[in-house]
Design a protein that fits this description.
single chain, 182 residues, Rossmann fold, 6-stranded parallel β-sheet, 9 helices
Length: 182
């Protein structure tokens, strides 16, 4: 974790539980920002060639992943889970031994926190994109951020992480990442 550099060679993206019935409970303005940043994270991860994993918490009750995220993900398979943590065997397979994971999704104080804690406990550095995680309640969101950071997560934003992984301008990847975060 030296220097907290988000490294393209070591990184993956994890999209946690951005599902229809959860979204319905969120503040619409905060959700829209979170959705936009999540879509930017997906586009940026694809541009950089990062492995992507996506989870759904009890989809029978909470519905599927929202359509804009599904469309952005394309053929990335969704991992169904009942546990709150997204650090599941099928997720571990998707990230292919990467040592850093950019974490986006919902809710910050439950599934995101438990995932960040489990990632850190497993020796994987969670990079928590503050602009791409959300909770229904602002207090839960703030407390969730603190819980994640005390568990070992590195505070970041989608744009900060993507440009850190990119490292320089003047390439087609730079143009793709720049377009993703606009």
């Amino acid at each position: 974790m030296k220097g907290h550099r988000f490294s393209r060679a070591d990184a993956a993206l994890l999209v946690i539980d951005v599902q229809e019935r959860l979204v319905a409970a969120m503040n619409p303005q905060r959700y829209q920002r979170m959705l936009n940043r999540t879509l930017a994270a997906i586009a940026g991860a694809k541009a950089l060639g990062l492995p992507i994993a996506v989870t759904e918490q009890y989809s029978k009750g909470l519905g599927p992943t929202v359509k804009p995220v599904l469309d952005a993900l394309g053929d990335v398979p969704r991992v169904e889970k009942l546990e709150f943590t997204a650090w599941q065997p099928k997720v571990r397979e998707r990230i292919l031994g990467r040592s850093q994971v950019l974490v986006v999704g919902m809710e910050t104080h439950v599934c995101v926190f438990q995932t960040a804690r489990d990632l850190a406990d497993a020796g994987v550095v969670p990079f928590l994109a503050h602009d791409a995680v959300i909770s229904r309640d602002e207090v839960d969101y703030r407390v969730g951020l603190g819980l994640c950071e005390r568990a070992g997560a590195v505070a970041t934003t989608v744009e900060a992480a993507l440009f850190d992984a990119l490292g320089r301008a003047g390439s087609p990847d730079f143009k793709a990442v720049s377009a993703a975060v606009k």
